[in-house]
């Protein structure tokens, strides 16, 4: 996998550092909600519940192992919130943490993807897919990973020199 070059090491991400990720995560949530409602208005309830559950999965399996535990991190609403739900783990952040992050995002996109495929929503599918890809591109290559201090993470581009 091609990783972004390290630009820095930000100990606490400000809202400005995260602005693109915040906007894209909000767009992902809202486009998924719109697609869910297109299928059936009541489908918005499990969509919102699964989105909320995804935070518990992230907190339990990913965030509590991270160097950003208790601080604002590259992904909005994660690192700074986990300390209210789970204690910090002494184990390092590694591949299992990435597995839980993947599981959380499957919870977030599962219903919209099922609706897109089931109803053949081409335009909505393209928009949803583009927002999802743009969110991860920003996180992995622009704001998040290139500035992250979570060195044990397998996606981290390396310690600063």
Give the topology, please.
Elements: H1 19-39, H2 44-61, H3 79-82, H4 95-119, H5 122-142
What do you see in this structure?
With 161 residues, the chain is mainly alpha-helical. It has one domain. 55% of the residues lie in helices and 0% in strands. It has five helices and no strands. Helix 2 (44-61) runs antiparallel to helix 4 (95-119).
Task: Describe the structure in brief.
The protein is an all-alpha fold and 161 residues long. It has 5 helices and no strands.
Number of strands: 0
N- to C-terminal distance: 21 Å
Alpha-carbon Rg, integer? 16 Å
Number of helices: 5
Bin the strand percentage. under 5%
SS-derived structural category:
mainly alpha
Helix coverage percent = 55-70%
**Which H/E pattern describes the elements?**
HHHHH
Detail the poorly predicted runs: none
The outline comes out as globular
* Mean pLDDT figure: 90
Largest sheet: none
Number of domains: 1
């Amino acid at each position: 996998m091609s990783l972004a070059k390290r630009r820095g090491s930000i100990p606490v991400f400000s809202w400005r550092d995260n602005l693109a990720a915040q906007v894209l995560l909000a767009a992902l949530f809202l486009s998924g909600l719109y697609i869910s409602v297109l299928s059936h208005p009541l489908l918005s309830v499990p969509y919102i519940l699964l989105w909320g559950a995804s935070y518990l999965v992230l907190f339990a399996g990913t965030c509590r192992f991270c160097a950003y535990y208790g601080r604002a991190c590259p992904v909005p609403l994660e690192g700074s919130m986990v300390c209210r739900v789970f204690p910090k783990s002494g184990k390092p952040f590694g591949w299992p943490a990435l597995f839980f992050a993947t599981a959380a995002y499957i919870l977030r996109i599962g219903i919209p993807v099922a609706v897109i495929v089931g109803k053949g929503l081409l335009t909505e599918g393209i928009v949803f897919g583009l927002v999802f890809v743009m969110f991860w591109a920003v996180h992995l290559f622009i704001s998040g990973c290139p500035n992250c201090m979570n060195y044990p993470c397998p996606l981290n581009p390396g310690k600063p020199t």
